[in-house]
Specification:
The chain is mainly β. It has seven domains: 102 residues, Sandwich (Immunoglobulin-like); 91 residues, Sandwich (Immunoglobulin-like); 87 residues, Immunoglobulin-like (Sandwich); 97 residues, Immunoglobulin-like (Sandwich); 92 residues, Sandwich (Immunoglobulin-like); 96 residues, Immunoglobulin-like (Sandwich); 93 residues, Sandwich (Immunoglobulin-like), CATH 2.60.40.10. Helices cover 3% and strands 49% of the residues. The protein is built from two helices and 61 strands. The strands form 14 sheets. Strands 2, 4, 5, 7, 8 and 9 form a six-stranded mixed sheet that branches. Strands 27, 29, 30, 32, 33 and 34 form a six-stranded mixed sheet that branches. Strands 36, 38, 39, 41, 42 and 43 form a six-stranded mixed sheet that branches. The longest helix has 17 residues. It is flat, with a radius of gyration of 48 Å. The chain starts with a helix and ends with a strand.
Length: 738
């Protein structure tokens, strides 16, 4: 009725309705970034807009793509906008088909779908709608067995046929009843067209049912069938699988006996197993294998197996096999002490002989006999060792010093097999102590020494080649020597920053240790410091001020006042700048020849937000030293690099190439607020999608790039400083033209 009234409405009303309809149509079409319809967009093909009865399992969506780029296919429920399926496909400039996987769509639901350039709604198709078909219930037929008898009751396969016009994945509820009973004796749910029912009774009538269900809650009608089980029969036979009946050369250790019983009723059988009628291995066991060890080699064995069914009927069979002949163990390998080695009795309080375990081909347990000989006579002999080593806590009680010995082991199995190792020799000896330290520097009785001795040294050696360690003692009298911070030295020299008193005589000695003998002491030596008590004046640190923060990371100027000295001109003073961590300041610079009242030294390459310590030492011509105090400062936080700018070719610009591929140069400008040296990663792509693009890495502001073809290219630069600061630049583009 309303349609008739509209037909009779005025022309003005027709005009308004036409405008409104046009507005609705346009609003359904995704637009490009400029607001207009995009003519280069995907085109939907099928199912047609507002299609009905569309398959909800494996629905096929067809569309046409304008380019070879990647596209997203999106399917949503029309009512609540819930996403049902999304996938990415490669465009091919032609028709593309996408199958919506089973289970993604539902029956009797209205959906909308569209295709767009991946992550780009500005290049999108129209939005189309479709309605999925109604769900159809499944059906079940052809139940087997049905109305038949003489079926095995131990295990019986039930099968059926099923169909579903929607190709749904079905599940089946199976129940088995004794005829006349309401409670099932067996229930299961399966996803296949078969089930196995076990442990039924003999000579009974059974009814069984099957019902199919689809994922949407629809069920098939209940299908029924009947069958009758057979009379019980004794087990039919037993087959020995390992070893085979009558087999010879069978392993006699860790032998896995395996068998299988066969029963026409498919019952779960139990077994009694015995060996040689005397060794019972299993009794009433459901196992069909048994591992046995400790058999004898080259022996005939008789195996008896009895299979017993649920009703007590049984079947007994006997089998025989003969074990293999014994094989002796493999040859042992000696490892320690090595062949022709020398054993120092001054170093060891115990002596251990080691060898690798000898494998046995028959998997026998191997024991060892251990023998030491000298000049053809046995010195030590031990038998039945289960380990792969033999230790002596007091080797001197059984072995002599300065003698050569031979040792070996014999591997034995329990059946008399034995194999001897090679023979190794070793020589015993005693260690000698190190020599007494001599040749001191400063020389004994040296005078006019500077108040800082540049280096102490001495000589000592060890005839056995033992690594030596040294302790240095210094004091103001021969009877009052103190262990200085010089212990466990591994070289015959020692340096110390200690400043000695002017005009005073000092005494010192060195103690040498080889780790095996009592320490050996040098004589007590002496040296006298010069009485020229005129060290340089102390350097005074100026900047950066002590404890200052926010200091730059590069080109930090350390400044201090110059020292003066009564006997030395200013330009001959030597300054040592120590810089670093509080517990690890190292020599950063040696400066001389300065005549100015203030001296400076520049440090660079510092780390952000880190505290550094520094001090200055000064030395005059007489070797006298003076020290500044130690100051510290903390560097500023790192600033990330500035944004890359000034691209070449310019953003949106073009390059003319006579042919492709074409070699081009890309360049840019970039700086760092902290003055750090920068590195760059340059990403270049044929589209705005840089996924999978490997960057070109460089430490300069330009790279060479081989453009494979004509067209547009997109690129951006990532600037990185040494401290983890990173700045990603703007994405630029350029075109290569003919």
């Amino acid at each position: 009725m309303r349609f008739v009234k509209i037909k009779k409405a005025s022309s003005l009303l027709y005009f308004v309705l036409a405008l409104y309809s046009a507005f609705l149509l346009v609003s359904c079409v995704p637009t490009n970034n400029n607001g207009g319809a995009n003519s280069n967009k995907p085109v939907l093909l099928s199912p047609q807009d507002e299609a009905v009865n569309v398959e909800f399992n494996n629905a096929v969506l067809k569309f046409r793509t304008p380019t070879n780029e990647k596209y997203e296919v999106v399917v949503k429920e029309a009512v609540n906008n819930a996403e049902a399926y999304r996938t990415v496909v490669d465009g091919n400039g032609d028709e593309v088909s996408v199958v919506v996987p089973k289970g993604k769509l539902k029956p009797t639901v209205r959906y909308k779908w569209y295709v767009r350039l991946r992550d780009d709604d500005s290049v999108a198709s129209d939005v189309w709608y479709f309605n999925t078909k109604s769900n159809t219930p499944p059906t079940v037929s052809n139940l087997k067995p049905d109305k038949t008898s003489d079926h095995p009751f131990g295990a019986l396969a039930l099968t059926w046929s099923a169909s579903d016009s929607d190709s749904d994945d079905l599940t089946f509820e199976v129940k088995v009843y004794l005829v006349g009973k309401t409670e099932p004796v067996f229930t299961t749910t399966v996803a296949t067209n078969s089930a196995v029912v076990k442990s039924l009774e003999q000579q009974k009538d059974y009814e069984w049912t099957v019902k199919a269900k689809d994922p949407w809650g629809s069920e098939s009608p209940l299908s029924k069938a009947t069958f009758t089980t057979k009379t019980n029969e004794a087990p039919e036979r037993i087959e020995l699988l390992n070893p085979k009946n009558g087999q010879v050369g069978v392993k006699f250790n860790n032998l896995l006996l395996q068998w299988e019983g066969y029963d026409k009723d498919y019952e779960e059988l139990k077994y009694n197993v015995s060996l040689n009628d005397s060794q019972n291995l299993l009794s009433s066991s459901a196992l069909t294998q048994y591992r046995i060890t400790g058999l004898k080699p080259d022996t005939l064995y008789r195996l008896k197996i009895t299979a017993i069914d649920t009703y007590g009927l049984s079947k007994t069979q006997e089998f025989t096999f003969r074990t293999k002949e014994n094989t002796p163990p493999n040859k042992p390998t000696l490892t320690e002490p090595t062949n022709n080695s020398r054993v120092n009795f001054a170093k060891v309080t115990s002596l251990t002989f080691r060898w690798l375990n000898a494998a046995d081909p028959d998997e026998d347990t191997v024991s060892y006999d251990f023998v030491i000989e000298s000049e053809g006579n046995i010195v030590v002999s031990r038998e039945g060792i289960s380990a792969n080593s033999q230790s002596f806590s007091d080797p001197k009680s059984i072995l002599d010093v300065g003698k050569t010995y031979t040792w070996y082991v014999v591997a034995k199995d329990p059946h008399g097999g034995k194999t001897r190792s090679d023979k190794f020799t070793f020589e015993t000896y005693e260690n000698n102590p190190p020599t007494k330290p001599t040749s001191p520097y400063p020389a004994n009785g040296a005078v006019n020494q500077p108040n800082r001795i540049p280096r102490f040294s001495w000589q000592s050696s060890d005839s056995d080649g033992d690594p030596l360690k040294f302790d240095v003692y210094i004091g103001s009298s021969p009877s009052d020597l103190t262990l200085v911070v010089a212990t466990d030295l591994t070289t015959a020299s020692f340096e110390t920053p200690q400043l000695f008193e002017f005009g005073k005589t000092y005494y010192w000695k060195v103690v040498a240790r080889d780790g095996y003998n009592p320490p050996v002491e040098s004589d007590v030596w002496s040296f006298t410091i010069t009485n020229k008590d005129n060290p340089p004046t102390q350097p005074v640190l100026l900047s950066p001020s002590n404890g200052s923060t926010g200091v730059a990371l590069n080109n930090v100027t350390l400044k201090w006042t110059a020292s003066s000295d009564a006997e030395t001109s200013r330009e001959t003073l030597v300054y040592y700048v120590y810089f670093g961590q509080a517990d690890n300041m190292t020599l950063s610079a040696t400066i001389t020849g300065k005549t100015t009242s203030e001296i400076d030294h520049i440090v660079t390459g510092l780390k952000p937000v880190k505290t550094y310590y520094w001090r200055v030492e000064v030395k005059d011509n007489f070797g006298n030293y003076a020290y500044s105090t130690t100051w510290s400062f903390t560097t500023k936080q790192n600033d990330a690099p500035d944004f890359p700018t000034n691209p070449s070719p310019s953003n949106g610009g073009s390059i003319t190439a006579s042919s492709t591929p074409a070699m081009i140069t890309l360049s840019w400008s970039c700086s760092d607020p902290d003055g750090d040296a920068l590195t760059y990663e340059v990403y270049i792509s044929r589209s705005t999608d840089f996924t999978g693009v490997e960057p070109i890495k460089t430490s300069i502001t330009s790279v060479s790039y081989t453009a494979p073809d004509y067209g547009w290219y997109y690129w951006y630069v990532v600037a990185k400083d040494p401290h983890g600061g990173t700045t990603k630049g703007k994405t630029w583009k350029f075109e290569i033209k003919k």
